[in-house]
Amino acid sequence: MSPNSIYGYAGKILWLDLTKREAKKLELSREMARDYIGARGFGIKILWDNMKKGTDPLSPESLLVVSVGPLAGTSSQSASRWFVVFKSPLTGTYFRSVGGGYFGAEMKFAGYDAIVVSGRAEKPTYVWIKDDNVEFRDATRAWGLTTNMTTELLKEETDKSARLITIGPAGERLVKISSIQSDDQRSAGRGGGGAVLGAKNLKAIVVKGSKMPKLFDEERFREAVKEEIQTYQKSPALEGFRALGTAGVVDLFYSLGHNPSFNFMQREFNGIDNYKADVFPRYIIKRGGCYGCMISCWQFLKTTDGPYAGFFWDKPEYEALWSFGSNLGNANLEAVMQANMLCDKYGLDVISVGSAIGMAYELYEKGILTRKETDGMELRWGDPEPALEIIRKIALREGIGRILGEGTKRAAEIIGRGAEKYAIQIKGLELPAYDPRAAKAHGLSLVTSNIGASHNMGWNYFEITGVPKDGKQVDPLSIEGKGELTKYVQDETAMYEVAGKCTFPADFVMFTRENLAKLLYYATGIEEFKNPDYLMLVGERVYNLERAFNVREGFGREHDTIPERFVKEPFPRTPAKGQVFELDKLLDDYYKARGWDLKTGKPTKAKLESLGLNDVAKEINAE
Amino acid sequence: MSPNSIYGYAGKILWLDLTKREAKKLELSREMARDYIGARGFGIKILWDNMKKGTDPLSPESLLVVSVGPLAGTSSQSASRWFVVFKSPLTGTYFRSVGGGYFGAEMKFAGYDAIVVSGRAEKPTYVWIKDDNVEFRDATRAWGLTTNMTTELLKEETDKSARLITIGPAGERLVKISSIQSDDQRSAGRGGGGAVLGAKNLKAIVVKGSKMPKLFDEERFREAVKEEIQTYQKSPALEGFRALGTAGVVDLFYSLGHNPSFNFMQREFNGIDNYKADVFPRYIIKRGGCYGCMISCWQFLKTTDGPYAGFFWDKPEYEALWSFGSNLGNANLEAVMQANMLCDKYGLDVISVGSAIGMAYELYEKGILTRKETDGMELRWGDPEPALEIIRKIALREGIGRILGEGTKRAAEIIGRGAEKYAIQIKGLELPAYDPRAAKAHGLSLVTSNIGASHNMGWNYFEITGVPKDGKQVDPLSIEGKGELTKYVQDETAMYEVAGKCTFPADFVMFTRENLAKLLYYATGIEEFKNPDYLMLVGERVYNLERAFNVREGFGREHDTIPERFVKEPFPRTPAKGQVFELDKLLDDYYKARGWDLKTGKPTKAKLESLGLNDVAKEINAE
Fold it and tell me: Minimal Cα distance from B346: which residue of A?
């Protein structure tokens, strides 16, 4: 190893300046590794240090960080996620989006813990990284192609076994709800990362690496992985996850008050049986999984008849099964499969797209949108055909798609006439498939999340799957203690994500903090990592730094809010009948638990300093 | 080499019995090699010897032969085509369809000159051939998939570098105008070969080979190839072909009276400028070519906007640019690209599909079809949208597609009410993009072709591209000497095709017969091949044997006919204004040239015996 290198890490941050077509390799400092661990931690640290307040996310000055954790490319399980961290053109906040598959490990093999994308290329460009060699290449040929066709073309131009992340036609057109997709069709879907790359004229990052990460204590590391695998194997969720991934819970979650129907109006949805777990197996023709993950939760579904016949594609995850399913009152699973595929191909976020379409359907029902504004389409609950056409229109910025592609918040403002009420979003990010009225801490997590209503940045498994907290069952409808509970899950998610871990196993309690400490210590040799409490502290540190980024951008308590539907319209069906979301009480409780100012929602000086963020406290004038 | 092997040949015929799941390897006899050379020659010889009169093409008893020539897999140019020979469910005649790409060479490398498919598998099956090893494998997973998705799946299941031919959803559903597609999207499009395989429950043949063919005199063979390449290089057509392939001639051929507009009504077509050669380059993002062909006439076109945005695909060839273009009065090139892609994916013949749709458009204009029968669609000339939907319906046998997928002849019979008049077909095979009224020998070739109105089995380059015959220009509108000229081109095509050669270079006179003789002799050492006249004799022999097959099936002069449009409706525009097709005169002239009976159209005993087909003469009671 070189004198500066650190076990477990690749040791380099690759800084791409698209304007100058320059690639710099910066040494990763031991301090940064210790304080932020990696992945989501590196993302916010680089963003905080290098991106000025008020930067337009679509300007050359904005940055987008792709980062992995110190366990990426190792045999540690579900640990090679690639994180994308940027300021979102959709929300104006800090943002982190994350994808799986093989890109993360490949990036590590090529020798990089993070890739920072800056500047703006004059013309469509892609970056081809083969170990130390970095080329800025003309992407004119690939520009305009769907993500899968881009993959085909760019692998031909580089190396068939290379891995890549790319944007689709939507990102090129700066659609605010555009995604970044990997060659294996994993999505960093949320927040409009596709548009950030599109604005930089960067079509794709293609990577091929040959260096295995060096570990501090290989033998003990292997032992820790063995222990990790045993924990997975003991989990009652393992087999279900393997069989169907997140698609296995659609009707169950509906019965819990989630998988919210009809744009969160939560009317009874008669089609729910078409999404039962036993419906899927007949479609499955192939399985797969991410690098280094024994769960292997990918299934590929085949459609053989009707309008969508002839393809196989990754199954829609729970969120897409909702956003194009019960959210639209649509009982046609095959149409959902089609919608999901179109979003992947065009490079669109399935949650935000489905939500925007759900809003349009409700606005149409209420007469706020008419056929004049829907390009002649009738938007009737249960009819998926217009939804499929709208997906294309969103991707290509045509007609009504031009408006809906701005996200529900901005789209509703453009439409006016009271449409805002039906935009189901927080800080501009569309809600995922959980109803805050039916799970209060989960709702609180959506309200306060640093990126807006995230589907996986603080997923409250105590409320959703009924895992006991300190031996006691948590009542999802109660508001008691929910501030602390929310903070706990948010920080814990952050902890796992600085290590580059996947949230699915975390959500189903397949990780233990003690095991994570072993993995990180034996991988890196960094003494602090031995202590599980230190890891949780880093989680909290990262969470607060993200919050500070938002504070610097002008966000405060007034933005930790929720659409009035959840506050004013009682939940209409079992099991949460009559429930509303008690916003203010929950928020007070949360800020207290966080050690943040109750009035402004700003982290206090004391809190930040306790996390070693003294400079940060100064910069945001924390008191 | 084994004692039985013959230079140049793989030496084996692989006989697949799907019913018994048995693969037999038969030795290729020296006699068969000498008398039929290969490819198209082997196809008809095997069919004639082994397929009983009156066999239902979709029964287990029917055979389908995939064959290559002795030059396949060598460095001889454009010589690795794979031929598919069978009795057509569309026409009831002998049929040969042919594709390019890499499958033909791979089949030779695996050790087979021909693969005979017989029987019927109990359930969806594919055959995986790795050199000597042949496996019958379950194709349940691939069943229902488009051809491109099948390729993806089956390469994963076998070998990423394997080559394959497959059917799509159309072939599975026994659509009469379904194709067979290769992994590199070359089509054996015509005659319903897809349905023949579909009826056998055979989804695909996947091949991987490792044996280079052994040649008789490698050094002299290389010299002959060098000479061949020089002929290519001297051809004025080479660069144009390389640049655009068959897409370069669309507007030129229109000006010659071809690329017939509006289902051969030949009204002025204002959109023709959208198909000019200079329109294509802006779409091209990739090029390619078949194994061992210096022309490399493949281009891949990209669409970046509008309803079909985001893909690249092989360019439509001349015929598809017609069948979905001027044939439908459609000026939207991108819609043609889409239609072409859909046909490739579903496994459909672009000519027959476009022609069936053209007929439907004309029937709709004439009020013979109404919206009740078109599933509510308005079929208006120039509007490609219904055409795209009909393609899907044909593939999946839905609504009007169920009827049109039978081919124009049968579809018109089903529709009745005088529709037959608008079915532009000969012996049930839809006409390609040439108007018999504007090129009489070419028309005569369509009328008399052994497979029906073929686009490439006797392409009269003297008439179409103006190559002089024996130093004299041929007037396409004259009928004089056209019997002899037609025979000449048909036999010549057969000669090149028994060698496995591509018809494109043949049509543009890039081959010479003398060079072919050298190639075949130095490859195989078979003395007879030294003599160019012998090769032409084999061409004629094969042509007559194909004819005999049809005679045995009950075909005669009455089937060598043409739709009344060409006989009764004078050609309306330049350069063939006022012309009709003089069927009877031309036919008499042709039979005379052929040495066939004028009344029955049957080859005479004398003719057959002069070709060494004494047994054949006996079997069809030739006089």
Answer: A310
CB pair distance less than 8 Å for A396 and B302: no
Same domain, B106 and B18: yes
Which residues are paired to A95 by β-bridges? A86
Q: Once rounded to an integer, what is the mean pLDDT over residues B23-32? A: 97
The answer to whether A310 contacts B286, with C-beta atoms less than 8 Å apart, is: no
| B contacts of A175 (beta carbons < 8 Å) | none
Q: Please, how many CA atoms are within 13 Å of residue B1, restricted to the half-sphere of its CB?
A: 17
- Asked if B306's CB is within 8 angstroms of A396's CB, the reply is yes
Name the band, by pLDDT with cuts 50, 70 and 90, for residue A4. Answer: low
The answer to whether residue A442 sits within a structural domain is: yes
Contact criterion met (CB < 8 Å) for B309 and A168: no
Domain end call among A398, A430, A462:
A430
Provide the CATH number for the domain around residue A418.
1.10.569.10
Interchain proximity B305–A396, CB inside 8 Å: yes
Count: domains in chain B? 3
CA dist., res. A237 & res. A246, Å (int): 11
Q: Is the pLDDT of residue A1 over 80?
A: no
A316-358 tens-digit pLDDT: 999 999 999 999 999 999 999 999 999 999 999 999 999 999 9
Check CB contact under 8 Å for B169 and A310.
yes
The per-type count for chain A, helices as H runs and strands as E runs, is 25, 17
| Structure ipTM | 0.94
Under an 8 A CB cutoff, do B146 and A310 touch? yes
B475 domain-assigned: yes
CA distance B141 to chain A (A): 6
| A406 and A514 belong to one structural domain | no
- The answer to whether residue B563 scores a pLDDT higher than 70 is yes
- Residue A121: CATH number of its domain: 3.60.9.10
Most B CBs within 10 Å: which of A155, A285, A391, as the mutation test of the B interface?
Answer: A285
Distance CA B348, CA B97 (A): 13
Last residue of some domain: B406, B430, B454?
Answer: B430
In this structure, the answer to whether residues A369 and A406 fall within a common structural domain is yes
CB-CB: which of B306, B310, B345 is closest to A346? Answer: B310
Cβ of B312 within 8 Å of Cβ of A149? The answer is: yes
Whole-angstrom Cα distance, residue B449 to residue B469?
A: 21
Peptide bond preceding B575 in cis form (omega within 30 of 0): yes
A52 and A86 inside one domain = yes
Residues A191 and A276 reside in one and the same domain: no
Residue B166 covered by a domain: yes
- CATH number of the domain where residue A585 is located: 1.10.599.10
Alpha-carbon span B607 to A142, nearest angstrom: 58
Both B465 and B604 in a single domain?
yes
Q: In sequence order, what are the beta bridge partners of B182?
A: B165
Q: Decide if A302 and B144 are in contact by the 8 Å CB cutoff.
A: yes
Same domain? For A564 and A581 the reply is yes
Residues of chain B whose beta carbon is less than 8 angstroms from a beta carbon of chain A are 141-146, 149, 153, 156, 168-169, 285-286, 302-307, 309-312, 345-346, 392, 395-396
What Cα–Cα distance (Å) separates residue B279 from each residue in B132, B251, B385?
Answer: 48, 11, 22
Q: How confident is the model at residue B4 (pLDDT cuts 50, 70, 90)?
A: low
Asked if residue A214 is part of any domain, the answer here is no
Contact pairs from chain A to chain B, CB under 8 Å? 76
Instruction: Quote the CA–CA distance of B181 and B87 in Å, as a whole number.
Output: 18
Nearest CA in chain B to A307: B392
Domain residues for the domain of B504 are 436-619
Order the strands of the A64-67 sheet from edge to edge: A22-27, A12-17, A114-118, A64-67, A82-87, A94-99
Q: What 3-state class would DSSP assign to A12?
A: strand
Our CA-based measurement puts residue B313 at a distance from the nearest CA of chain A, in whole angstroms, of: 9
For residues A196 and A341, membership in a common domain is answered with: no
- Reported as a single tens digit per residue, the pLDDT across B282-307 is 999 999 999 999 999 999 999 999 99
Here the tokens at position B514 are 């003398």
